[in-house]
């Protein structure tokens, strides 16, 4: 099993940057695919980014491609999301997730964090 805890959310201005972290407890982190989702007010949760267990494969939603970078440090049991050139439409609760696989999107993750709020002002 994995327990996931996000941190690093907050308030940023448009054009600014934030870095989210997802700390995992559990021995299976280094063998788990990981990713980020977000949910804006009144909208469904959507896929943001995916990273394979090895870190060799990454995928991004078109809306964040070129602005966000996902990474992981298996020695620290931590995944990151570097968010640059933030836009107001990036506002939402960001969730990290683990397990599952990538097939045109991050499918069927088994574990979820509690979420961290990101607010981008214009």
In short:
The protein is mainly β and 122 residues long. It is built from no helices and 13 strands.
Question: How many separate helices?
Answer: 0
What is the average per-residue confidence, as pLDDT, rounded to a whole number? 95
What is the β-strand count?
13
Largest sheet: 7 strands, mixed
Derived structural class: mainly beta
Please give the share of residues in helix.
under 10%
H and E string:
EEEEEEEEEEEEE
Radius of gyration: 13 Å
Strand fraction equals over 45%
- Tertiary shape: globular
**End-to-end distance:** 40 Å
Uncertain segments are none
Provide structural commentary.
The chain is mainly beta and 122 residues long. The protein has no helices and 13 strands. The chain has strands at residues 3-7, 10-13, 18-25, 34-39, 46-51, 58-60, 68-73, 78-83, 92-98, 101-102, 106-107, 111-112, 116-121. The strands form 3 sheets. Strands 2, 4, 5, 6, 9, 12 and 13 form a 7-stranded mixed sheet that branches. It has a 4-stranded antiparallel sheet with strand order 1-3-8-7, with no helix packed on it. The model has no long low-confidence stretch (mean pLDDT 95).
Show the helix and strand layout.
Blueprint: E1 3-7, E2 10-13, E3 18-25, E4 34-39, E5 46-51, E6 58-60, E7 68-73, E8 78-83, E9 92-98, E10 101-102, E11 106-107, E12 111-112, E13 116-121
Parallel strand pairs: 2-13
Antiparallel strand pairs: 1-3, 3-8, 4-5, 4-9, 5-6, 7-8, 9-12, 9-13, 10-11
Descriptive terms for the model:
4-stranded antiparallel beta sheet, mainly beta, 7-stranded mixed beta sheet, 0% helix, 122 residues
């Amino acid at each position: 099993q994995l327990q996931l805890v996000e941190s690093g959310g907050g308030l940023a201005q448009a054009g600014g940057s934030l870095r989210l972290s997802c700390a995992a407890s559990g021995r299976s982190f280094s063998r788990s695919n990981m990713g980020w989702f977000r949910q804006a007010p009144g909208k469904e949760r959507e896929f943001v980014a995916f990273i394979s267990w090895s870190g060799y494969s990454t995928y991004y939603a078109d809306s964040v491609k070129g602005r966000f970078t996902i990474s992981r440090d298996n020695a620290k049991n931590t995944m990151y999301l570097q968010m640059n050139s933030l836009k107001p439409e990036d506002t939402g609760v960001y969730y990290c997730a683990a397990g599952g696989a990538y097939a045109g999107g991050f499918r069927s993750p088994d574990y979820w964090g509690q979420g961290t709020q990101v607010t981008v002002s214009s």
